[in-house]
């Protein structure tokens, strides 16, 4: 395992007037992204965002973060990349993050190549 925090999407714009943002998911899908209670604005995990609620809208995620209650506040993280902590994800057996597979040596079981 390399990094503890993984990119999952990007805040692309503000949605409505109560501090919601629209997120373009870069992960398995918007439903996966809606499962998290916390997202992060940096890959160090220092800037934590608590998710008050999240829903799917036209293959995007509309989310409301605690403390972001106005349009002006929601403008602050606009265009920022969002991260999740590996600790918040339980992968099924024989399931891996794509990031962990990049650059590994692969051998064909049938040919040995």
Give a summary of the structure in a few sentences:
The protein is mostly beta strands. 12% of the residues lie in helices and 36% in strands.
Tell me about this structure:
The structure is a single chain. This protein is mostly beta strands. Helix content is 12%, strand content 36%. It has a 6-stranded antiparallel sheet. Strand 1 (5-15) and strand 2 form a beta hairpin. The longest helix is centred in the middle third of the chain and has 5 residues, at 71-75. The relative contact order is 0.25. The model has no long low-confidence stretch (mean pLDDT 92).
Essential attributes:
113 residues, 6-stranded antiparallel sheet, 12% helix, elongated
Largest sheet: 6 strands, antiparallel
Estimate the helix proportion, in percent. Answer: 10-25%
Q: Which regions have little confidence, pLDDT < 50, spanning 5+ residues? A: none
Query: How is the quaternary structure best described?
Result: single chain
Rg over CA atoms, rounded to whole Å, is 16 Å
Which structural category do the helix and sheet elements fall into? mainly beta
Give the termini distance in whole angstroms: 25 Å
The SSE string, one letter per element, is EEHEEEHEH
Q: How many helix segments?
A: 3
Number of strands: 6
How do the strands line up in the largest sheet?
A: 3-4-5-2-1-6
Strand content bin: 35-45%
Q: What integer is the average pLDDT?
A: 92
The dominant shape is elongated
């Amino acid at each position: 395992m390399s990094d503890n925090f993984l990119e999952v999407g990007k805040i692309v714009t503000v949605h409505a007037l109560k501090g919601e943002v629209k997120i373009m998911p870069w992960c398995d899908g918007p439903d996966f992204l809606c499962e998290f209670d916390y997202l992060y604005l940096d890959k160090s995990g220092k800037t934590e965002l608590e998710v008050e609620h999240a829903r799917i809208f036209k293959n995007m995620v509309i989310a409301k973060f605690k403390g972001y209650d106005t349009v002006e506040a929601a403008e602050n993280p606009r265009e920022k990349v969002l991260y999740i902590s590996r600790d918040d994800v339980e992968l099924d057996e024989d399931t891996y993050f794509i990031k962990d597979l990049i650059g590994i040596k692969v051998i064909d079981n049938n040919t040995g190549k």
